[in-house]
Amino acid sequence: MMETTKKETLPTPTESVKLVENVGHESVGSHVSLPTLRSLYLTPPKQYTIDDDANTITFKATLDYPPVRRLKPSERTRILVTGGAGFVGSHLVDRLMVMGHEVVVLDNFFTGNKQNIQHWIGHPHFELVRHDVVDPFMIEVSQIYHLACPASPPHYQYNPTKTVKTSVMGTINMLGLAKRTKARFLLTSTSEVYGDPEEHPQKETYWGNVNPIGPRACYDEGKRIAETLTYSYMRQDGVDVRVARIFNTFGPRMCPADGRVVSNFIMQALRGNPLTLYGDGDQTRSFQYVHDLVDGLILLMNKRYQSPVNLGNPEEYTIGQFATMINKIVDPSRAIAIKRLPALTDDPRKRKPAIEIAQKHLGWQPRFGVQQGLEETIDWFRLQAAENNEAGE
Ligand SMILES: O=c1ccn([C@@H]2O[C@H](COP(=O)(O)OP(=O)(O)O[C@H]3OC[C@@H](O)[C@H](O)[C@H]3O)[C@@H](O)[C@H]2O)c(=O)[nH]1
């Protein structure tokens, strides 16, 4: 069923409308200008040439790597990022590389994409290993950012047993590595540990309302046990741990077909198709731009706070409002068309982070308004569509 709705009124964004030009925090060396980061995904050097007559594509080696900060060897840290070729992982890798550190990426490329970190391959500070964290991995590192796990509901529900194994065995393996090497370990947990919350906004002290046998359980129970494992290794073995509970995040390098609301709505609007709204569209989410999340993760790793920390932008929208917003940015002249689909099982009705802990203990709060983040993300999706067309992919 397709219908056309009238424009909905959007809530006033809580963020100032001043555009963000710099990200990061000098206290942990993560500060960098936004144009520097944008050059890594919005204007990457073309790494192929096309011969239309012969119908061939020729890939080139990268000649110039992006500049990285000059650190003394004693200041440079060897950092492992699991899931480093994924959406969030690759932005974290960009930042750690630009900061001047040595970065080792593990990825099984189930949802990650080599292209996301292509611009670092061959760099003397960078290593890429195709590896599944379900199997043990040996290396000497000082910090571990453990991101590896599919995060989009259709991806993590595609093979739920594997998702549980990734969270449980993957986290045991990485905690074992942290224990042996005395590396600091950061788990990327999720707002999904709160399930369909009965407390709003969600504070870190809330224990959640999770259906342990539903279709989302492989992910939310998987991450809950990953948190349990993390604090068990801390108490039992003295591992120095950090836990980030990440709320809905969006940005360039989201997989256009990953099935989450931001990529679905943007792709549908760009193609001139109706936007698919699950259920009544009154369920809410709070969306943060990926650079804010990366700022928060690096601060968390480098500060001393060991309890879980919410990282998210409290700017809350109903999904119906969000559809209107995306449609308007993509094409202000187009009346929105909505295709209503049945509500998903166990879909949380509302979600919004309480961020007082991050503000107090990390000195972090989001800087990007949703509007600026969406504009940049839509620019990137447009670029992708043009490039894929050209490369015939
Ligand atoms: O096309 C769509 C896609 C999604 N939706 C709705 O939009 C809302 C958000 O859905 P998403 O799939 O983007 O993300 P969810 O909030 O359900 O899960 C996310 O939670 C936090 C993270 O850990 C993960 O990235 C992801 O699991 C849901 O209510 C969903 O039903 C639509 O209405 N239409």
TrEMBL record:
UniProt topology in membrane: Single-pass type II membrane protein
NAD(P)-binding domain mapped to chain residues: 80-377
Cofactor(s), names only, from the UniProt record: NAD(+)
Record SUPFAM superfamilies: NAD(P)-binding Rossmann-fold domains (SSF51735)
Any one GO biological process: UDP-D-xylose biosynthetic process
Pfam families, per database record: GDP_Man_Dehyd (PF16363)
Catalytic reaction equation(s): UDP-alpha-D-glucuronate + H(+) = UDP-alpha-D-xylose + CO2
Keywords: Cytoplasm, Decarboxylase, Golgi apparatus, Lyase, Membrane, NAD, Signal-anchor, Transmembrane, Transmembrane helix
Family statement drawn from the similarity comment of this UniProt entry: Belongs to the NAD(P)-dependent epimerase/dehydratase family. UDP-glucuronic acid decarboxylase subfamily.
Protein name according to UniProt: UDP-glucuronate decarboxylase
Organismal lineage: Eukaryota, Fungi, Fungi incertae sedis, Mucoromycota, Mucoromycotina
